[in-house]
Here is the input.
Amino acid sequence: MLSKNLFPQSSQKLIRLFAICAFLVLPWGCAGLPVPPEEPEAASRAQAAVDAGGAFRLSGRIGVSHNGESFSGSLRWRHSAGDDEIFILSPLGQGVARISRNLAGASLETAEGRGYRAADVESLTEEVLGWRLPASGLQYWVAGRPAPEGPAEAELDDNLQLRRLHQDGWRIDYLGYRLVQGTLLPAKLEMAMGDHLRVRLVIDDWVLP
Here is the structure.
């Protein structure tokens, strides 16, 4: 079940947002961003697309620990150079939040139809969800490389694969890779900001448009 402890009791905004879990109703929750069956070449083509800064879609599972509270569910992400659309779903597949980003800024829609806006995904998720989703860096980190903006420190393992990355205040640990059509792709990442926030992502599928 979706944990009711994800959002602090003291935050009225987060309490209102989390009330959606009592209804689990969202028109786009199950239909949005469906994950097709894995294609043999999809992951390799997706790696090339991410490296080139192009469009990709991915789906996976997400776990968040924040100040003693926790949440687990799934994530669907459609990315292009000009916009992003991110769905956060409950373990049962119902929509919890839909996050959109374009040149005008970022917006978040809840299952009960409430809308929020901010300049970027990071500040928006921190304000509404209570924790930061580092979308700007994550679009590169999921491909196993640092974001081109800003300094980064990287540690490699014995196979010269990225084992740990420090960037923009985050520590990103690469906990596993999988070989798909000759290309090693990150399969499990854990991102931490200090001791108060951890975001774990398990990537199940890459899909190109």
The chain has one domain: 12-207. The first strand starts at residue 56 and ends at 66.
